[in-house]
Write a structure and sequence with these properties.
Elements lengths: L2 E3 L13 H4 L24 H8 L3 H4 L2 E7 L15 H9 L7 H11 L4 E4 L6 H17 L8 E5 L3 H15 L8 E3 L6 H10 L2 E4 L1 H8 L7 H5 L1 E6 L7 H20 L5 E6 L5 H9 L4 E3 L9 E6 L3 E5 L5 E3 L2 H14 L4 E5 L2 H16 L3 H4 L2 E4 L5 H13 L4 E4 L14 E5 L5 H8 L9 E6 L4 H8 L2 H4 L13 H14 L7 H4 L3 H10 L3 E4 L2 E4 L19 E5 L5 E5 L4 H4 L5 E4 L2 E9 L4 E6 L4 E22 L2 E21 L5 E6 L5 E11 L2 H6 L4 H18 L11 E6 L9 E6 L7 H7 L1 H13 L25 H13 L9
Parallel strand pairs: 3-8, 3-9, 4-6, 4-7, 5-6, 7-8, 10-17, 13-15, 13-16, 14-15, 16-17, 20-24
Antiparallel strand pairs: 1-29, 2-10, 11-12, 18-19, 20-21, 22-23, 23-24, 25-26, 26-27, 26-28, 28-30, 29-30
Protein name: DEAD/DEAH box helicase
Keywords: ATP-binding, Helicase, Hydrolase, Nucleotide-binding
Pfam families: DEAD, Helicase_C, MZB, WHD_HRQ1
Length: about 800
Amino acid sequence: MAFNHLPAAMHDALEALSVMAVTHSVPMAKNHRPRRPAGETGSRPSPGMVLDRLSSGESRAARITHTEHMPAREGRHAVWPHRIRPEVIAAIEAAGIEHPWAHQAEAAEHALDGESVVISTGTASGKSLAYLAPVLSTLLDGSEAPNGRGTTALYLAPTKALAADQRRAVRELAAPLGNRIRPAVYDGDTPIEEREWVRQYANYVLTNPDMLHRGILPSHPRWSSFLRSLRYVVIDECHTYRGVFGSHVAQVLRRLRRICARYGSEPVFLLASATSAEPALAAGRLTGLPVTEVSDDASPRGELVFALWEPPLTELHGERGAPVRRTATAETADLLTDLTRQGVRSVAFVRSRRGAELISVIAQERLAETDRALARRVAAYRGGYLPEERRALERALHSGELLGLAATTALELGVDVSGLDAVVIAGYPGTRASLWQQAGRAGRSGEGALAILVARDDPLDTFLVHHPEAIFEQPVETTVLDPDNPYVLAPHLCAAAAELPLTEPDLALFGPAAPDLLPQLEGAGLLRRRSTGWYWTRRERAADLTDIRGGGGSPVRIVEAGTGRLLGTVDEAASHTAVHEGAVHLHQGRTYLVRELDLKDSVALVEEAVPPYSTTARDTTSITVLETDTEIPWGAGRLCYGSVEVTNQVVSFLRRRLITGEVLGETKLDLPPRTLRTRAVWWTVTEDQLDAARITPEILGGALHAAEHASIGMLPLFATCDRWDIGGVSVPLHPDTLLPTVFVYDGHPGGAGFAERAFHTARAWLTATREAIASCECEAGCPSCIQSPKCGNGNDPLHKRGAVRLLTELLRAAPEAPPAT
């Protein structure tokens, strides 16, 4: 029997299972201090004072496991390069910024020299102004050209919200420059009647990689004037382009460079990133170009108080009688409520859409008990909302009408939330880079700020709140992406051929894997070779072959059965677990039951209801080794890396009582299996190793299963992923290895680079895994060490002590580091 743990692509997270029962400005530079929103007066309380109020009382104080005080830092000024036009400098000064920080001036100099550059400095360090100054200056130069259109620039953001926010910022900054700077957003929300104006007249177009992939590049003849004049491409928040999404974006950018060359332009790339390891290397892999790095942050920073917060144990017991901590969702709802009552402007970042909705509802209900007006100043913000809903929330946040917000990472990426006093992070967000990005949303005016990381009941979060050095004494991760992934590259070669026939000289642009893929695409009837190159042969759009977000397939629309009203969407890959027939679905505080999931038409029909339970999908998984790329001995066992095929099928769902999490029943489902070809790391153990670790046949399955769960939970410390990006399978006797085996695999077709990173850091990764299990205070295993909220086998069997002994024996002969593959 195989025991499995699934990635988000197959298994939606239901973190807030019993939470209802357990609970009874100008972003381009912060060189100046923005105004507080209307209606808010007086000085802010210090972050230490706010934390003291939150932790008052013996039970609350015990929840803080560590407090890190980061002192304020003075800024270092410089002067703008002399080539920046005086009108632009005057506009910057009019915005209240007298002098640039040193890193802003350095990055602008590189941009004006025609060098691609990545600015990798802290949140609110003025990265946007570093690229806007040279971009606006160059656009002004172009506006005086005799051809009328002049120079153009393209801005790419990972989210629509960030692009809209940047347009507001550019308009404010460029207002003194008149209509010579014409910024416009071009995305899926742009009305049809506005799109032609943007193509013809805008000289600073703000969009996202999705629209570039599906809308602009396939229609490049209509954009010929813009692309011919393209001087700069700005890539904001470039650290978010990692894994499969980052690999897709890397190929989209190569297609853009190819089309630009066709029109005679060679744009300079200006990238902005949160602090990251090796930013120039990551930016070079993303763009395919040499990139200069600017990473010496010269901006000032206010005091930051960062608290690690562990929710208390409850009287409830979970699966197998394991002790259960209060959920991070419930604890965060309490903190957001208390911060709102103090008048502290706050954002709570939540991992899941469901969690954001629940936190908002709970905070509103509690505030309404004493002040209904205050309750209306708290809301949720997440992906899946309709465009008009998102825009209304963004306006309310900017105006100060909202005092507290429960948000998914849709709000993490650079949206101007100046004036925030506190950030609460409900669960480790997967990477240190993302953690600091979220924490940096507070104190963006240079004043003091409070950040709180609330631990979820899982191995990684528990490890971190008791090992603060893993957060505060370690550098951020290196961004992982693999543009040569054949599952990523193949559809982009087709899209490129549809845009312009592919030629031999083009292949070097797309990487070393491209020549080998072309015969396969010809054999599949997707491309046809002629004397002048390779041509797209189909009627359908080549750009529709792939979803660059890595989900694949059309989003499933969630429709209210009685009215036909569209409530939102869910990724096709998550539909089997999130909106299967009988699933409980939350939307803006309302509860719905899924009556039907129509996979053919990509529609889930729902009806409003108030069931006294939540639902959790259960599934089965099997894994087959396709090819072993490399393997090394670990004592008598082996550590391997290669290609695998994973077959998963959602077979049923559990209904759990909201009050206790008690299982009320299981309902069978008839859904088709899903097959995934991907990359994995796996390790085997021999009979001699099992004997040395005192692992009997009776506990072998539980020991392997427990080690698998914990290792998945700990991998985000060593790769730029989170546990939802990866999956795992443990097998007491695998038919391909003929040994007890634990697999951890990338949850995306073709792989995302996470399993490869795990292979190269295996000794440190599995050492941390062993420590996380061994140091947990529970007796037989709990969600803080070996239980998983997404286990397809209901966390059965698990054997905590066996996992510790097994990992101890495995690590006894582990090499320091595997060689490069």
